[in-house]
TrEMBL record:
CDD domains: BRO1_UmRIM23-like. This is pH-response regulator protein palC. Residues 1-476 form the BRO1 domain. Belongs to the palC family. Residues 406-476 are annotated as: Disordered. PROSITE patterns: BRO1. Residues 406-421 have a biased composition (Low complexity). It comes from Agrocybe pediades. PANTHER family: PH-RESPONSE REGULATOR PROTEIN PALC. It comes from the Eukaryota. GO terms for cellular component: plasma membrane. Residues 444-454 have a biased composition (Basic and acidic residues).
Length: 476
């Protein structure tokens, strides 16, 4: 799973550039609340930057971001409805973390406008959800390989993987919302120079990355019982608890497709030069992560296609099993060589990431070799089927299958102003004050008198009262 470097931001006070133009001046205290909510986020981001990875409190950051989002939404709505006037255009300072930089620290960039702030807050929110999922996965460890774990403990850790996958699906929905909605609104508001972090190509790539990571967790969750049953002797025969190899192959094909398309989008941004962003590349760490995991899942899809052919295909598909597993072996060897070459020129932090992936590749190489040797021996001694070429294999690869979809992001209601619960309540109170209460009571009384008469009794007018004052009836 990818671990994001979180941005940091500079201090700001909304009262410095926001003027309350509402009739009752009801928003002044909300501006100070928004300033405090943003200061809380700034404080925890600075604290996380000084803390080790395994000690960072991503859950608290997620909660603080969820508290601040309604305020920035309210400011956008109030400015759009002229209930708050901007005395000057605000500038928000954020440190961009996905841009390739020759400096040790990520560069800081001043972004003008409330839309810039909203975009970066959502981006940070998605980063925090992804990192929270990463911390959950790290905390459960490789429990599938623990022979002493009880069935109840294994199921509890399976459920934690489900929670992590849910966070990743939410992050994917947020990245998509930024790409499809927020950046379009920001682009129409003014011309600006965007960093790669806030380009449509990169945010779309991050949406696919998060969904692919969630799909990887779903595969791990699907294999947890089978991995526990076969961790002593990986390879054939498959345990009864093992899911269908054809299903696993399709899930890995979808993962490879998501990682590949994400990498293509990230590279597309690097190759493009427009009036907004200029020519700046996405960080090599992100691009290498996408490329390595695309290659890994391509290899694993061929592994399970070979196992499916060997286990379910019978005599006729003995050659297919050997061909797919041979292809998987070759892809894993190429990936292993590429990672070892890169580990010679990267820093210690990136080297730890490569070493962790190298462990996964080594485990899969051992498993693939076991299956390959078994099915090759079976084909050489029993089936005698021709082994297809790599070109022939392409026509036998099925389409991918998604395990869990992304979760669409619904923006929270504004904390105040148009669209908020408080604003709706005030409008209802104003309508009550404007309505003629006395007339309503009179209408109600007349309605009761009318309904109290029998249906057959006609409604007649009362005769005039005879006047008894002096001069009554006389006309002058």
């Amino acid at each position: 799973m990818y671990l994001y470097e979180l941005p940091t931001t500079g201090a700001i006070s909304f009262a410095d550039f926001c003027a309350d133009h509402s009739g009752s001046k009801a928003y002044t205290h909300h501006l100070s609340e928004a300033t405090q909510a943003r200061a809380n986020i700034r404080g925890i981001l600075k604290e996380n930057k000084r803390t080790e990875d395994n000690e960072r409190d991503y859950l608290s950051l997620v909660k603080l971001l969820e508290e601040y989002l309604p305020y920035i939404r309210a400011l956008l709505e109030c400015v759009a409805h002229d209930e708050i006037i901007l005395k000057k255009e605000p500038t928000f300072s954020w440190r961009i973390t996905l841009t390739e930089s020759g400096f040790r620290d990520s560069p800081r960039m001043d972004l003008p406008g409330l839309h810039a702030e909203y975009s970066f807050v959502l981006l940070t929110y998605a980063f925090a959800l992804s990192n929270l999922a990463h911390s959950i996965v790290t905390s459960v460890g490789e429990y599938e390989k623990d022979r002493a774990i009880s069935d109840a403990e294994r199921k509890a850790k399976d459920e934690r993987l489900n929670v992590a996958g849910d966070f990743l699906c939410r992050a994917s929905g947020i990245f998509t919302h930024i790409s499809d909605i927020v950046l379009s609104e920001w682009q129409t508001s003014r011309a600006f120079k965007r960093p790669p972090d806030l380009s449509k190509e990169v945010t779309s790539a991050l949406a696919r990355l998060s969904l692919a990571d969630a799909q990887t967790l779903a595969i791990r969750r699907l294999l947890s019982r089978a991995a526990y049953d076969s961790n002593i002797a990986p390879g054939p025969p498959l345990p009864k608890s093992h899911p269908a190899p054809s299903l696993l192959a399709k899930l890995h094909i979808e993962c490879a497709s998501l990682y590949t398309s994400a990498r293509t989008l990230a590279k597309t941004h690097a190759a493009s030069k427009d009036m907004f962003s200029g020519k700046k590349e996405v960080s090599q760490d992100l691009r290498h992560y996408l490329g390595n995991h695309a290659a890994l899942h391509h290899a694993l899809s061929h592994k399970w296609l070979g196992v499916d052919a060997g286990e379910k295909g019978g005599t006729e598909r003995g050659g297919d099993a050997v061909a797919f597993l041979s292809s998987a072996k070759m892809k894993l060897d190429e990936l292993n060589l590429a990672m070892r070459t890169r580990s010679l020129v990267i820093g210690s932090t990136d080297k730890r990431k490569v070493e962790k992936l190298d462990e996964v590749v080594h485990t899969e190489q051992t498993s693939v070799n076991a299956f390959y040797e078994h099915y090759k021996k079976m084909n050489d001694t029993l089936h005698f089927q021709p082994v297809p070429t790599t070109k022939d294999l392409q026509s036998r690869i099925p389409g991918g299958r998604i395990a869990i979809p992304a979760k669409a992001f619904s923006p929270p209601a504004p904390a105040f102003g148009p669209g908020s619960a408080e604003h709706a309540r005030r409008q209802a109170e104003q309508l009550d004050l404007d309505s003629p209460v006395a007339d309503d009571e009179t209408i109600s009384e007349n309605r009761d008198e009318t309904h109290s008469r029998p249906q057959s009794e006609p409604v007649t007018s009362q005769p005039p009262v005879k006047a008894d004052y002096a001069g009554a009836g006389a006309y002058f």
